[in-house]
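Entry 14. Structure prediction run on the chain below.
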Amino acid sequence: KREKRTKNEIGMHSIRGGTIVGEHEIIFAGRDEIITLSHSARSKEVFAVGAVNASVFMTGKEAGMYDMAELVK
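Output returned:
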């Protein structure tokens, strides 16, 4: 199902293919200007390390929503 997004919604697009391990780009496009943030991973190892760190962080914590601010205290 495809619906037109409202003015307050942010559009999102995903591309997967080939041997790309992880390329992520966020684009903030306004009138006559664009701000781009990007991240490129060359190995799945960085994602595994992040998963292990998240598991260690969550040990003993109650179920719920956590964010990066709590992780980097």
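The radius of gyration is 17 Å.
Filed with the rest of this week's runs.
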